[in-house]
Amino acid sequence: xxxxxxxxxGNSGVLKYExxxxxxxxxxxxxxxxxxxxxxxxxxxxxxxxxxxxxxxALPLTLGWDVAGTVxxxxxxxxxxxxxDAVICRPDTMRNGGYAEYIAVKTLDLAPAxxxxxxxxxxxxxxxxxxxxxxxxxxGGLKKGQNVLIxxxxxxxxxxxxxxxxxAGATVIGTTSAKxxxxxxxxxxxxTVDHVKDDFTxxxxxxxxxxxxxxxxxQAKSWGVIRKGGVLxxxxxxxxxxxxxxxxxxxxxxxxxxxxxxxxxxRLVDAVKVRVIVQKVFPLAEAKAAQDLSxxxxxxxxxxxxx
Length: 307
Known about the structure:
9 helices
């Protein structure tokens, strides 16, 4: 099969579009014919070796852990999924990913794909939507009537977080660029703050929950806008000492994907309650350009590789 793999860690130049062995599935696994794969910061962070101290990846490695496709083959123990079923999944990041024509995945990672959107679009759902869901509800404990501030509201995580928070009955404030403000408001944000021209600390206060997808100075300035007893949840790591000094809670998390959560999100898409925002679709052979766009930090919504 064709795949994009790395044989060494480094910049996007190490990505190789090449022939790779077909995956072999176990009795509790499914072989998925990949139609499209989302591109995420996780991909280039692993490519550059940033995460090797936490988890060692064997090389060569196929990147990409945001998959939409159809079941090609089911293992002997699998009864829920059959050949031809349209599925989405966030595969195990310690195994080969979806920048390839086929991928082997555990059934617990799979969910039926939404029926109302193409698979090319559905590939933008698994990783970012689950991370946003987990941050807001499972880690942050967001409740109806609360105020939530979402940093990076036009990004892959942010676009889902805005929609989930609004569905949950929160008042949603999103930081974004002026060019993406209308889009973020169309997703449900009550207020947008231009992160280029405006200082959000002068625009918002008494926030119950901050979802920080940026870190650094943005996180450091966020502690002062959270009400006492409030919480900041960060996808890039929360400074717990700084949180304690401000009388609030700082929580980090690592996505633990599961098919049940993903199926609920798929249903929300089919119910036209959640939209998948896609900025650009690249062919698989142009994975380098797709990762460069992701790494630039200027993508609005999801970047997709079409296999």
